[in-house]
Amino acid sequence: LTERLAAFKNEPARTADGHTVELAVNAGMAEEKLDGMVDEADGVGLFRTEFLFMQSDHFPTEDEQFHVYKQLASAWNGKPVVIRTLDIGGDKELSYWQLPAESNPFLGMRAIRLCLHEQDLFKTQLRAILRASAYGCVKIMFPMVTTIDELRKAKAFTEQSKAELRAEHIAFDENVEIGIMAEVPSVIQLADRFAKQVDFFSIGTNDLVQYTLAVDRMNEKVAHLYDYFHPAVLRSIHSLIQAAHREGKWVGMCGKMAGDPLAAPLLLAMGLDEWSMDAPSVARQKFRLSTLTVGESKLLLEKALDLDTAAEVRAAVKHWNQSQE
Ligand code: PEP
Ligand code: MG
């Protein structure tokens, strides 16, 4: 199998019926070795900037951040790099910034909420990302957006930062794409409205499952209820992709589901445009896609969307796999 995987490594991800999708990699940890991934993957679908903040003993300055983002953008030689703005709160903390304790941190001051509250912090990061956009194909993504109002504010800050850079004659990409994570159910419900105001979505299944099924992603006692094959999650993903495509916007996925070979036929059938996963999953998912066809996968999706439980969906997908062999 290793040899068969090696043969696919640096080829584009292509299904058995010749359909290509973008396979990207998730990154963020400084110690992560992404050597070789620049050839293997089509880009970075999620750069988690929080690790840069967590591994520092102070708020990284604009120049410190710029240096990291610029290196990343240049290393990828023009392939897209989606940089996500700071996603702390919830389970992620900073040693040098004591946030007030909350009884429901995952429903509290987290991610974009925190950034819109701490505007200097947010603008420093936006300026650093924008400056890096002059050195590659950088896209900006906001985490945990829940309301259109948050999106408007985050975009306004981006515009302000652009205006400042222009006035200072500092280079950046005027057409930098702006997208949001689709990881809160309100974004699924309002997908048609959000789609008019973003360039792209990236589905964060890790949180989308937690918020759709009301299951704490860190709580082992309810881990048996945490499943992205739940029909409510599948329908959410499906309807988001349809709404985005109606507006001509692309949809990625950077939650764990994107790298799961079992989920691949469902995501392929839904028309997911960009799949982003941890580095070790890329070759395996490329291989998996090479065995699938869009037509057959669509038949499976139709069946799956008509089932009642996650267990039924899993069983249907496994059964379908066996029938394909
Ligand atoms: C997600 O929620 O699926 C995601 C990719 O973001 P994180 O795991 O960093 O919350
Ligand atoms: Mg998330």
UniProtKB/TrEMBL annotation:
<feature type="active site" description="Proton donor">
    <location>
        <position position="254"/>
    </location>
</feature>
<feature type="binding site">
    <location>
        <position position="84"/>
    </location>
    <ligand>
        <name>phosphoenolpyruvate</name>
    </ligand>
</feature>
<feature type="binding site">
    <location>
        <begin position="206"/>
        <end position="207"/>
    </location>
    <ligand>
        <name>phosphoenolpyruvate</name>
    </ligand>
</feature>
<dbReference type="GO" id="GO:0046872">
    <property type="term" value="F:metal ion binding"/>
</dbReference>
<feature type="domain" description="PEP-utilising enzyme C-terminal">
    <location>
        <begin position="4"/>
        <end position="291"/>
    </location>
</feature>
<dbReference type="GO" id="GO:0005737">
    <property type="term" value="C:cytoplasm"/>
</dbReference>
<keyword id="KW-0460">Magnesium</keyword>
<comment type="function">
    <text>General (non sugar-specific) component of the phosphoenolpyruvate-dependent sugar phosphotransferase system (sugar PTS). This major carbohydrate active-transport system catalyzes the phosphorylation of incoming sugar substrates concomitantly with their translocation across the cell membrane. Enzyme I transfers the phosphoryl group from phosphoenolpyruvate (PEP) to the phosphoryl carrier protein (HPr).</text>
</comment>
<keyword id="KW-0808">Transferase</keyword>
<feature type="binding site">
    <location>
        <position position="217"/>
    </location>
    <ligand>
        <name>phosphoenolpyruvate</name>
    </ligand>
</feature>
<keyword id="KW-0762">Sugar transport</keyword>
<keyword id="KW-0963">Cytoplasm</keyword>
<feature type="binding site">
    <location>
        <position position="207"/>
    </location>
    <ligand>
        <name>Mg(2+)</name>
    </ligand>
</feature>
<keyword id="KW-0813">Transport</keyword>
<feature type="binding site">
    <location>
        <position position="48"/>
    </location>
    <ligand>
        <name>phosphoenolpyruvate</name>
    </ligand>
</feature>
<dbReference type="GO" id="GO:0016301">
    <property type="term" value="F:kinase activity"/>
</dbReference>
<keyword id="KW-0479">Metal-binding</keyword>
<feature type="binding site">
    <location>
        <position position="183"/>
    </location>
    <ligand>
        <name>Mg(2+)</name>
    </ligand>
</feature>
<dbReference type="GO" id="GO:0009401">
    <property type="term" value="P:phosphoenolpyruvate-dependent sugar phosphotransferase system"/>
</dbReference>
<keyword id="KW-0418">Kinase</keyword>
<comment type="similarity">
    <text>Belongs to the PEP-utilizing enzyme family.</text>
</comment>
<keyword id="KW-0598">Phosphotransferase system</keyword>
<dbReference type="GO" id="GO:0008965">
    <property type="term" value="F:phosphoenolpyruvate-protein phosphotransferase activity"/>
</dbReference>
<protein>
    <recommendedName>
        <fullName>Phosphoenolpyruvate-protein phosphotransferase</fullName>
        <ecNumber>2.7.3.9</ecNumber>
    </recommendedName>
</protein>
